[in-house]
Amino acid sequence: MPPGLTKAHQVLDQQVDKTYGNFKFESEGARMSFLFQLYQKYQA
Description:
Structural class: mainly alpha
Oligomer: single chain
Number of helices: 2
Largest sheet: none
Shape: globular
Radius of gyration: 12 Å
Number of domains: 1
């Protein structure tokens, strides 16, 4: 992945963590699982 895109993903991950209670997710998988659970909850 190009360095600029990697940096953009890191910044986005930090904002997601901050938005959801300044929580540091254990892994990318944990973050994605959390976000998909929210999506399922609110799309129903």
